[in-house]
Amino acid sequence: SKHYGWMPFYESVDHNPYLKDFYEDMTRWAFHLQIYFLNSRFNQVRKIRESSKTVIQDRTIYEDAYIFAANLRKSGHINERDYQSYLDIFNSMIDFVQPPDLLVYLKADIPKLVQQIQKRNRDFEFNIKLEYLRTLGEHYETWITNYKLGKLLIIDVNELDFVERIEDFSYVVGRIELELNKA
Fold this sequence. Notes:
Elements: E1 7-9, H1 19-24, H2 26-50, E2 55-57, H3 61-74, H4 80-94, E3 102-107, H5 110-120, H6 130-145, E4 151-156, H7 166-180
Parallel strand pairs: 1-2, 3-4
């Protein structure tokens, strides 16, 4: 966002009243957390639609439903009744959502994800199980493979550190610019 001068929309982590509880007891708080994220993301969608500025969003509403909620359902942390209620709400919202002009998927393996989690140093994330990350990765791969809503750019970031190394940042920006400028 700084490089392009775009308005950023970040995932609501710092003020999320469920996140810490979720990582301590996923089954108890999974549905609550997903509803919170869905509402937060939908509010971002509304603000994006109202804005005349170019924006960048760090996570889409699609990921909430097709990856995170689906993963929690598959792993037994959200029961079928709650999952269907969640999907009903999501499906009511989705008609108001415009897909992104470009979806950038930063692909990373579990060791890289663990490294990033450790770098963020959020104490409540230290309880994340590797199995949870693995199944999230499977859901991401399935979703990305079937993504047809618009332009998609996949960047393998396993060997990149675009925050610390300017050459890696330049590589990522170069790939984004090539994709944005394609006819």
